Protein 1
Amino acid sequence: MATEILMPALSPTMEEGTLAKWLKKEGDTISAGDIIAEIETDKATMEFEAVDEGIMGKILIAEGTENVKVNTPIAVLVEDGEEVPADAGQSAPAAEAAPAVAAAPAPAAAAPAAPKVDQSPDWPEGTPMKTQTVREALRDAMAEEMRRDPDVFLMGEEVGEYQGAYKISQGMLDEFGSKRVIDTPITEHGFAGIATGAAFGGLKPIVEFMTFNFAMQAIDHIINSAAKTLYMSGGQMGAPMVFRGPNGAAARVGAQHSQDYAAWYAQIPGLKVVMPYSAADYKGLMKQAIRDPNPVIFLENEILYGKSFEVPVLDDFTIPFGKAKVCRSGNDVTIVSFGIGMTYALEAAEKLAEDGIDAEVIDLRTLRPLDYDTVIASVMKTNRMVTVEEGWPVGSIGNHLSAYVMTHAFDYLDAPVLNCTGKDVPMPYAANLEKHALVTTAEVIDAVKQVTYR
Amino acid sequence: MAARKPAAQANVSKEELLSYYRDMLLIRRFEEKAGQLYGMGLIGGFCHLYIGQEAVVVGLEACTKEGDKRVTSYRDHGHMLACGMDANGVMAELTGREGGYSKGKGGSMHMFSKEKHFYGGHGIVGAQVPLGAGLAFSDKYRGNDNVTFAYFGDGAANQGQVYETYNMAELWDLPVIFVIENNQYAMGTSVARSTKSTSLYGRGEAYGIKGEEVDGMSVLAVKEAGERAVAHCRAGKGPYILEVKTYRYRGHSMSDPAKYRTREEVQKMREERDPIEQIRAMLLTGSHASEDDLKKIDKEIKDIVNESAEFAKTSPEPALDELWTDIYA
């Protein structure tokens, strides 16, 4: 039976090419694997191997021909003694189109109706409370989850015998032993990969980075291995794990140890991103993160570790992702923040109240998923918004929220949204410069006064 | 590379030889078909063929038991077929169709099978090495005797994360076999042009990891070395390195004109060392099979491959709402 030889695609982007040279002529015997022609692609000149065997019956495209489209018949292979069919080369291109899929209708533009907002309390009224630091809340959350689920383990630098570089894992080695509280060598790339592999294998690792600055060494595994595998495997396997550690500026540690990664990680589909402020949120969100079947980035803050808050005394207490908290109710302006940014947001709101400006303060708590509804509902009430974060201004969470509010609540805005961020510089060491590089309460107050025209 | 005599030859049964022949031939014919479909524009993007290296994965898969795991790079089609994944599902993933292992969302370089304990198909050179050690970590944590095969190439062997992983794998006695498929070219750069430390398995010594060099063109030699490595790991003695010297006949990917080596070099390897021809010759000279028996196997394989191509062409493209699924569990 005669077989048509088609112009091959020889690179990911090739649509046509030049048939540079024939290495076989009509009548030649061809074996599979023989080089029959040289073809110039958009990238290089490639040797073209025969896939079938037979005799070169007819050459349809002469050598030197340019712009030969992929899948055009270029020659006909016949069996010994067979004639070349008269219609050789007349066939339709052989690449069959995939069965068509009906295009989904474009999503309708969101109607500017007031969104439903969940502001139910995080714990029942009347729950007894105790005062705890963020550090203690984090340790309790991890220890409770490790008691509950034997597949959960903690690994990182100095988490065991040293009791944690920032003493978050204090006492955990004693309780859980070295099988579950694992000291690693200083090799972030390697142990993040090992932990991700362990998560593929069904375990639930908590990876502590001494700081998220060092997680840049591991970011390939966080994103390419942990965040994308569920999708790439068509839902067969993913990475149920937590990457945690201090993030953002501490005090006077300079440029390489003072970066806020909130916006970086929040950009990645497949990751969940948490950045709490209060100790109660640290505890409830950490327990939720460990139970979540996806990779969770848990961004902590060294300055907050020692800060005390009221934490509910409950046997089991979690806070769902994607539920922002209205920390202070107000009518004149919405201040949206998260993590340590809340320190400035709340302080500004207190001072603004003295000037008669009634600010509503929202703590996003999780950045992915992000509770857009609570933000939009608030902006519909106050008609003004200021965002506060420690990270850099370009591509910030505030930029994203501004765009979202413009798209979904444009008619409700009485002033442009303003973003208060860290300055667009590497963190300086000098005390006065560092102070100036960070976002400040005074800047938040100024921004609010601008959007309220005061 | 010096030609070696497969030492275990005398002890190999007819059934084993036939199964190696069949498994290697399936990979080769499948890959040839994939190359063809690529030429027709049915497979897009990057497509890295395993032709020439078949003995590596077939020999090592012969050492496994249920529960063992494997993870590899983007040159992964052979590994998937060898561990028993369905040719239809693999080919349909190559064409980006609904019937593919990842529903068309992974492609040639990113395929997985939980059922067959195949953990990818990874597109970032070297990333699968710590991932493999992590899989082994999960088995050790659970206290079973499963082992993980972490395959990587001579190119990946220069990545830093490989050595971070060696260090921790030995420190924690992880049951992982590091299989360096040394096909002598990292894309277009030969081993000699990328390192002066050309004994790749020997680098494990610095971490206390045992290793050996293996003739990767001989499935019997690979199987024999694999058994040693597996026994070491199952006994709880920690990781093991196999540097398997092999050769890829085709370019690095479909768009590689392969100007970094001579046509003669490839031809010589094909003619003198081909892993499938070696077993074919053993079957015939040992009178384990007749030409007709082998023709029958060839035909069976051809049918499987043709069916997979047909399936991969006719399986529909994924529904558009698949765009939004499997992002979060």
Note: Chain B touches chain A through 73 residues (CB under 8 Å).
Protein 2
Amino acid sequence: MSALAIWALFLAIGLGTVLLRLSFIYLFGKIEMPARLRRALRFVPASVLAALVFPALTHTAGHINLSLHNFRLLAGLGGALIAWRTRNVLLTIAVGMALLWLLQVMWGG
Amino acid sequence: MKLHPDFVAGARAAGPILLGVVPFALVSGVAAISVGLTPAEAIGMSFLVFAGASQLAVFQLIGAGSPWIIMVLTAWIINVRFTMYSATLAPHFQKLPLRLKSLFAYMLSDQAFAVTLARFIEPEPVSHAWFYAGTAGTIWVVWQVSAITGALLGTLVPASWGFDFAFPLSFMALLFGALRDRPAVLAALTGGLTAVLARGLPYNTGLVLATLVGIAAGYLAEMLGPQAVTA
């Protein structure tokens, strides 16, 4: 990607994001958020985060790989256990990365 | 110069949550470098966007060579949640001038929302504007300092370390925080599995599709399921 495309990307994302943040702070008293939309938006974090995480573990080099040779899947499951018990971002990253490196060192990557 | 006491109270209230902000921002800085951005680009993005989850998702897509428009759409979808925070905080900022409303909107983060809302619903009165400015401003400053540090340190981390694996790991910790009840768990499982099956779709459109399917599953489960079910 060219430097111009990258800065345009950040500008587009940033502008859209600030409008999303300002939306109802600005519109208060003019428009109310429909109750149905509010109920649906509640599921955005769970859906999008899972959609980011799952394929990052199940796919290696663009292909699905559910075998024990998929070190990212194994290390990711270990990380998930830590995430579940602690909700701690730093600890989850530390344990997951350590597991990945350990598997790669012991069984070759 | 004497700071407004409610501004100081807001800054203090942000304290504990900074433990989560610092590593996340550091990772976002390092991650930006790991996908080939320059430190200036990484820092510029951090100031322009200031929304960690969407930034990390964009890095993952840059790494996968996704088209520009897919990256923009993905980031916007991840940040649609801010409209919920915006609607919840709106009555507290009603009387402020648009300049301040815009500044406060720019500084709005998951963490600032959680901390200020917890304080606003307490019966004891507080200046909403000053308290929010203290909390959100502190989080913003700490985020930027950590992200800049990460971007500068990132140049020292070799790509062979597989540091891109830190993205899904950081999302996991956030994911479990979002699984507040059964419909949310169902939304996550449906969205995640759809993303796995849709991984081969062109232009990485699978992520957007999977998110929409997950939202629909959670919404339907809540509408059709027994009212009292909470995990």
Note: The radius of gyration of chain A is 20 Å.
